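Quick question: what would this complex look like in 3D?
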Amino acid sequence: MRDVSIIGIGSTPVGEHWDQSLRHLAYNAVASALRDANIERADALYVGNMLSGEISGQAHLGALIADFAGLRGIEAIKVEAACASAAAAFRQAYIGVASGLQDVVIALGVEKMTDDVGSKLTAGLASAADADYESVHGITFVALNALIMQRYMYEYKVRREDFAGFAINAHANGAGNPNAMFQRPITREAFTHSGMVADPIGLLDASPMADGAAAVILCPTEQAREFTANAIRIKASAAATDSLSLHDRRDPLWLQAAEDSAQRAYRQAGVGPEAIDFFELHDAFTIMSALSLEASGFAERGKGAWLARDGEITPEGKIPITTRGGLKARGHPVGATGLYQIIEAVQQLRGEAGPNQVTNAQLGMTQNIGGSGATIVTHIFERV
Amino acid sequence: MRDVSIIGIGSTPVGEHWDQSLRHLAYNAVASALRDANIERADALYVGNMLSGEISGQAHLGALIADFAGLRGIEAIKVEAACASAAAAFRQAYIGVASGLQDVVIALGVEKMTDDVGSKLTAGLASAADADYESVHGITFVALNALIMQRYMYEYKVRREDFAGFAINAHANGAGNPNAMFQRPITREAFTHSGMVADPIGLLDASPMADGAAAVILCPTEQAREFTANAIRIKASAAATDSLSLHDRRDPLWLQAAEDSAQRAYRQAGVGPEAIDFFELHDAFTIMSALSLEASGFAERGKGAWLARDGEITPEGKIPITTRGGLKARGHPVGATGLYQIIEAVQQLRGEAGPNQVTNAQLGMTQNIGGSGATIVTHIFERV
């Protein structure tokens, strides 16, 4: 099994790209990543995407984007695992290079959500949940997360206000990220008084839907120096699943797949959570940040929100999270998000995070979540 | 890189399963493959599927099916490459085992087409073509293939009747396959007088849409003997792409991705087409059989249909194809088809093909095609 590194990154700004089609967004990210790696060819392309079939009437993105990006003929497929699609695609690229079967591989995440004609978006997002037992009742994705948050507040005696720090930190960090959808800080008052979406989830607990594309180039670590001086090593890669439906879980307040994939990643990397310098977690809703921190070993059960309350998640805190805005402020183009997280980790480790730079960042972790915790993909990256 | 073998196979009959949901079909195939391999656990699940989001409102099949099959927690994703989704999922399973990162892996293909409410099926299938340049004009998938067939007949002076042998052979072979959707032979007259679907494609040129699920268990060849005495070795695995849109191809009558993936497979296997004992090709339409035979080196350009006319594709012919009915008679549950092909190859190599057994089958090839030739995945299997 070969050691694997990242030699190029590229992404579009996250936002509403009314003037660009899905393939143009994808092309921009791929071309930019190839330029960054200083190469023109690749052996394979793995595309993470969730909703192109439903929203744009376009399946078969692997071949489509390979061709449109000037790479006609190369092996290319789409990987889907709901909102964890991009990190899942990245993991397949990692496995491809590790196997020795592929040398230079592109992992791309792309989502074009503004193509939505006929309001299929809410139904499309709900397809990440269990169609026969959850979404059939009309429950939306935000409503599912609201059920979890409600229960969390009841069980652990936490107030809605205690989650404010997650959103405030994300928006403060997004202000320093030129690719972020929202580049304005928010106040505690704005959080408290933001309109309710699904009680207790308010507008500022929730990440925005958006268009975006993010691409990363991988190759064997031993060849990385031929292309670039600032390759970032993939120190660990792990994925795990849980039941799609909340009611089937032993404990709806515990992300078992986060624990499983994080523990596997820690074992592969030979480190524990205390060694991680920053953590790009999946803050689709503030409650998910708390659960992700707990199941990944950064906080005790029921105490994830305290890290936000106590300022431990800011760039100067004990475990900086969402250092470039996270899903909340950078935006959440669902099938692309996992690769935005990975690119932001690479930027931190290269020392290219600008005003959001985490000092002396050596080890960074990313965690991409599909559904309400049914697919969770965790990676650890290292500056070498 | 590790050598990889198949140690278990399982599938549902192909047909209209009104009484079974997508997850039940998937479960039946997975459980049957696990029984066949005499194991109860796996490290990972790769699900090939094209249309569950559009037809059943259900994305996120990896985690869903892992859980429903009693494998909660294992790594699981969906792979999509239009009608080539199942072989693409199988290839990812192969790469996973070859890499050393995964030991026992399940490749599953599943498609539930009868869930179609609101007639989304034709639009869904058209999403395999280019949404912005082909399907936007209202062209359906069968119409695209009709354009190719029309041009083929004009260019090579072939009559529609010359394709009859493909359908007659497929139906004759389907009669011996208890899992086939159509188990009745057809006559040349029936072919000639079958109703026109999209000129020149008649009803008996076209494969039927259907429900179905097919699963295969892979593990390292060196561990295969621990599980079974009749493991089948994966001698070659290759995938290639082409443009989605027909008008962008240099030659619409040449499946470049079939040539590319077949040639790569021959190189990996160290053999040429003359060594292949049978070929499970992707006869979604009779024209595709001709093009696949040509681009894979079994016939000269423009002469693929002659093999059918001359009886060279029957079980006793030079290159037996669709030995258990093919897409035409076994049926075409799109995202599952590639794994039905692979299971049929394994049955031939194990000597379990019953009345369709190819004598002394040693090397078998499968080829799964997505779109009108944009993704093509070729595998070669060996009895050891």
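Answer marked as accepted. The radius of gyration of chain B is 19 Å.
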